[in-house]
Amino acid sequence: MNLPNKITIFRVILIPVFLVVFYISAIPANKWIALAIYIIASLSDMVDGKIARKYNLVTDFGKFMDPLADKLLVSAAMIALIEFGRIPAWIVIVIISREFIISGFRLVAADNGIVIAAGWWGKVKTAVTMVMLCVMIPDLATVFPNAATPIHIFEQILIYASLILTVVSLIDYLVKNKGVIKSYK
Length: 185
Hints:
Elements: H1 3-23, H2 30-54, H3 60-83, H4 89-111, H5 120-136, H6 140-143, H7 148-176, H8 178-183
Helix pairs in contact: 1-2, 1-3, 2-3, 3-4, 3-5, 4-7, 5-7
């Protein structure tokens, strides 16, 4: 197994570690430690991709597992935030549904020998979602109670920006790649 694939596996292993730390309030500063784990896992995605491309270490395993690891990490964080009443479940369902739709679409494309790269809207959506989670994981309103209202407003802006970008990026993706479905027999 090459280094980028090991880094991807490391990211998957960090997901339950993130969740355990996030949920155990007996751990001092658990939300901040969970945030650090989340950031490390998120950054590992950039690292494994750069290494794989730079040293020509792209594998079928990596093509499958890397995006799956990303989706698992983001989904785990958002689902955990539902339980704490920090994000509405319906928004998480829309965001995760988009990921399933895009993944299914890519499978159909791959079956036809077509590789579909991530689009600009998808990259912006990912960046906004990552920022949203980095702001929400530590629950800043409890750390800075005097600024709770502006923090909640900022969180809501990020949540709805992520939601809107999720829908826009899905529509953009489907419109740009509608030929893939037409060519599938």
